[in-house]
Design a protein that fits this description.
It is built from three helices and six strands. The protein has 141 residues and is an alpha+beta fold. 27% of the residues are buried. Mean pLDDT is 84; it is low at 1-8.
Length: 141
C-alpha cells in the first residue's frame, strides 16, 4: 500500500455511482466504432454538445467544448478509466480557468497500475456524478 498522500490501491478510490455509471455506459455505447468518438446534442443548441471519445487502455474522455478566440476550450473534459467493471474519474481539465488535475500517479502510466491521489480522485468522483446527471437531463439520455 502506498502512502495516503499520493495514493493507494483501488479499494480506497471512488468509482462513479450506479446512476452515473449507467449514464456513462449510455454515452460510450454511442461511440462510432469507425471514428472512436461521438458528438451528442445539437450544434449551437441551448446546451453544449457532449463529446465522447475512446482512448487507449480502457480509458474514455467526456467533454463539453466552448470556443475562445477560435480555439476549442474544454469546459470541462474528464478522463475515466474502467477497472474491474467500475468507472473511475482520473483527470479533469477546465481550460477557461486554467484548471487541470490528474489524480493518477506516474506508476499508473508507466505500468498500468490503478494508483491515485485519493483526495483528488474522490473530489473528481463527486463532480463526475453530478455532471453525468446534468448531461442526462440536458441531452435527454
Amino acid at each position: 500500500m502506498l502512502d495516503s498522500k499520493r495514493g493507494a490501491d483501488m479499494r480506497n478510490s471512488r468509482a462513479l455511482s450506479k446512476e452515473a455509471t449507467k449514464i456513462f455506459n449510455k454515452l460510450i455505447s454511442k461511440i462510432d466504432p469507425a471514428t472512436g468518438h461521438v458528438r451528442i446534442g445539437k450544434p449551437g443548441g441551448v446546451f453544449m454538445q457532449v463529446v465522447v471519445e475512446k482512448l487507449p487502455n480502457r480509458e474514455y474522455s467526456i467533454a463539453h467544448y466552448g470556443e475562445q478566440n477560435g480555439d476549442a476550450m474544454a469546459d470541462p473534459e474528464m478522463r475515466f478509466a474502467i477497472i474491474d467493471n467500475e468507472v473511475y474519474p482520473i483527470s479533469v481539465r477546465m481550460d477557461y480557468t486554467g484548471y487541470y488535475k490528474d489524480c493518477a500517479g506516474d506508476e499508473y502510466y508507466e505500468k498500468g497500475l490503478p494508483i491515485f491521489d485519493i483526495k483528488e480522485q474522490a473530489d473528481m468522483a463527486s463532480f463526475a456524478n453530478m455532471w453525468m446527471r446534468n448531461i442526462k437531463h440536458q441531452q435527454g439520455i
